[in-house]
Amino acid sequence: MKLGSLTGGRDGRLIVVSRDLAWCADATHIAPTLQAALDAWETVAPRLEALATDLAHEAIPMMRFHERQADAPLPRAFQWADGSAYVNHVELVRKARDAVLPESFWHDPLMYQGASDRFLPPRGPIPLADEAWGCDFEAEVIVVTGDVPQGADRATALAAIRLIGLVNDVSLRNLIPDELAKGFGFVQSKPASALSPVLATPDELGDAWADGRLRGILSVDLNDRPFGRADAGVDMTFDFGTLIAHLAKTRSIGAGSVIGSGTVSNRAADGGPGRPVADGGLGYSCIAEQRMVETISGGAPVTPFLKAGDHVRIRMDDAHGHAIFGTIEQTVATA
Amino acid sequence: MKLGSLTGGRDGRLIVVSRDLAWCADATHIAPTLQAALDAWETVAPRLEALATDLAHEAIPMMRFHERQADAPLPRAFQWADGSAYVNHVELVRKARDAVLPESFWHDPLMYQGASDRFLPPRGPIPLADEAWGCDFEAEVIVVTGDVPQGADRATALAAIRLIGLVNDVSLRNLIPDELAKGFGFVQSKPASALSPVLATPDELGDAWADGRLRGILSVDLNDRPFGRADAGVDMTFDFGTLIAHLAKTRSIGAGSVIGSGTVSNRAADGGPGRPVADGGLGYSCIAEQRMVETISGGAPVTPFLKAGDHVRIRMDDAHGHAIFGTIEQTVATA
After folding, report:
1. pTM of the model
2. Helices in B23-114 by DSSP H: which ranges?
3. Mutation for testing the A interface, residue in B44, B126, B184 having most A CBs under 10 Å
């Protein structure tokens, strides 16, 4: 099934959304919010599944689903921990800063605690106060977990995955080097991220969800031009089970935790960073990678970071060309 | 007024607690949880204040308040951002690792996003799976905020402080160096922290709350012996207004965010790290500092990190010797 939240209060109002995203049904009589559903998933999920079946059969009152009216499925969450599972991306971004990738990064996941007190709605603006901060998007896959016990292994972690979706992990590139040097992670350089309009259960995804990875082309458009077409199932060094187990090594994890894949990134056939979409490549899921490639080929970056009015679109289509999770579509606005 | 949460569900049940912590009154008819109260503070706080007045006058049904029955006032929160406002502490801990303190640390606050999906109850065990991780306590002051707009200045940030309390920020010292080297902050080296049994509004604290700092001796006992007696109002380089404004530079902050001071730490009169309580000094608010001083004086640390059965107590007394926020009292348990 697919779940989302209509705007309403700080935590939204839970809805079940039809597979084609055309229709939705109020689910607040089952659980008022998605967090409440996740808190009691074992009893709530079967009732939501029944509602989804009724919706598919048009057997209940239903409403048109408009992505522009959706809040983030979790407008706020108790945890947002973002990995860097596509180590290729980390290597490229480090190269752009003339920093070396430690060998350990290939077997010990990078992960940071992000701010989860507000996820931006899928069509909400990116509120940017200063273009000099170097605003970038990062298109990623996320999962939402149930409770995970301390010390959980990969299999236990995988079994705790409740929902899957997409995120635009907004990043302020020019603030990152100073925060990395402090070693304490990202406080100012990672403002609020935007979630996809809907999240889907693993069973909803069929073959696209396998081995703790989501397979499919993550489409990123910048100002209505194709920017990234990487496959999220390729070059993901650490699957979500491994990422969650990493986070749970020393403590339990609460239901409703949002875990990110890090920026999706594919190597080219020659092992290198490939080419922009405009040059026939798969492109990139963030501006920083494209700037890196421009630096390699031309000596300096060409593509600027985001400025007010710039527009980014992130989605993943199924085999029939329908956006599985809806579309994140944001315009940069002066904060 | 003083607020707390009795155990019940994932978010506890809101209570108002008498000034002397002897009595409490159910407040769930006003707001079911402390988070719900913070979400609508402007309308809810006056009603809670009225309840607190009735409780003080014994004009309503009241119950004995037992700290051992209290959950964390916020059993989970949407944000836990911990500063390092006592730069003295940072300098000492770095010295213990032979690392240099950058000069910028004196004017640019250090802060990390911590895990907020579960705060331990004030009398809950510290679940430790491996003593080799080097488990330590950190006694700190916290504040809980209302909504803070992006770009808020210090005065706006100070005005958004709703509640004040204490935290034991459990730290796994031997996991910290590797995570610091990654630059992404603390994921495995900072497991769940414990909050004090109650939180107090700023007006409740009188002169003890001034200039964005809490004045008073933060008493830390390890295995029933005095370990730390530092004054939280002394040597706090960055006040809470400055810490919150730092966090809000690039994004808004949601109601119910928990902001930490970092380990409370006082310099000695000679500017140095002082002496353990047993040697007539003010002692330390974490084991790591005492080990540092032992290393300086004797060439090697003597005090071991925590092991199963060790017992830590953290509190701050008012002028009459009563614990303002109750007592955090935890025993290390094998996870």
Report:
1. 0.97
2. 34-39, 41-56, 87-96
3. B184
Query: Which residue on chain B is closest to A131 by alpha carbon?
Result: B250
* CB count in 10 Å sphere of residue B225: 10
Tokens of A279: 């040059």
B81 contacts chain A (CB < 8 A): yes
Look at residues B132, B138, B139, B159 and name the one whose alpha carbon lies nearest to residue B148.
B159
State the pLDDT confidence band at B67, using cuts at 50, 70 and 90: very high
Q: Residue B68 forms beta bridges with which residues?
A: none
Cβ contact, residue pair A251, B183, below 8 Å: no
Structure tokens at B60: 């309503």
Among residues B293, B325, B60, the alpha carbon closest in space to that of B216 is found at B325
Asked if residue A78 lies in contact with residue A256, where contact means CB atoms within 8 angstroms, the answer is yes
Q: Do B192 and A254 touch (CB under 8 A)?
A: no
Cross-chain residue pair A251–B110, CB shorter than 8 Å:
no
| A335 closest CB neighbour out of B150, B181, B255 | B150
Q: Is the dihedral of CA B27, B33, B37, B40 positive or negative?
A: negative
What pLDDT, on a 0 to 100 scale, did the predictor assign at position B96?
A: 67
pLDDT in tens, A80-97: 999 999 998 788 777 766
Residue from the list B78, B150, B335 with its beta carbon closest to the beta carbon of A76: B78
Q: Does the CA dihedral A198-A199-A203-A209 come out positive or negative?
A: positive
Q: With an 8 Å Cβ cutoff, is A150 touching chain B?
A: yes
Q: In this complex, is the C-beta atom of A100 within 8 Å of any C-beta atom belonging to chain B? A: no
Contact B289, B273 (CB under 8 A): yes
Q: For residues B111-120, b (16+ Cβ closer than 10 Å) or e, as one string?
A: bbbbbbbbbb
Check A335 against B253: CB less than 8 A apart: no
CA distance A173 to A176: 5
Total residue count of chain B as it appears in this document: 335
Tens-place pLDDT, residues B112-136: 999 999 999 999 999 999 999 999 9
A33 part of contact set with chain B, CB < 8 Å: no
Mean pLDDT in residue range A165-183:
95
Q: Strand, coil or helix: what is A133?
A: helix
